[in-house]
Predict the structure.
Amino acid sequence: MTMTEQPVEPAEDDVAGCACDGAGGLVGSGLDVRPEAPETARDRVNRRWNEILQETRVAQTGVQILFGFLLSVAFTPLFGNLRTFDRVVYVVTVVLGASATGALIAPVSLHRFLSGQRMKHTVVEAACRLMVCGMVLLALTIGCTLLLILRIAVPGVLAEVLVGGVMLWFGLCWYVLPLRLRRQAARRPAE
């Protein structure tokens, strides 16, 4: 059996944010959502793997489109007019984009090489780490791409200020919020 053949039932947290009535059903939905039996270790690792696959599909598409755009920039007529600093930013951006692409595609390679080796938990853990690394690299790639574009489009130091604001926003959305929610969940008593 391969890693992706196992059907996965939705976990309890998959209905988070839905209003529930006192009997365990979703309010106004006609659905009867009752507490499920605890998730087995095998079910958990299968669910986590499927979640990683979905997340990877989203991130890979974005990074591949951005990377393709970056590669084409060097062949435009205006590239020859870039100052040294802008060329350095471009090279750093391309290297970051290539690195992000590698990290975000790596879970596919892990799966292909290790499928059937009874290492799913290890593969899932490694894929999670690669995804986090890839997301950091993707955020940096986006920031550098913005810097490259805005230094041409916006006069003065405004480009750096705008990029700083966008990177702060990414940091809040992609890292601070999830970590804060994780801490809040850890403080909650078990249900």
Confidence is low (pLDDT under 50) at residues 1-29.
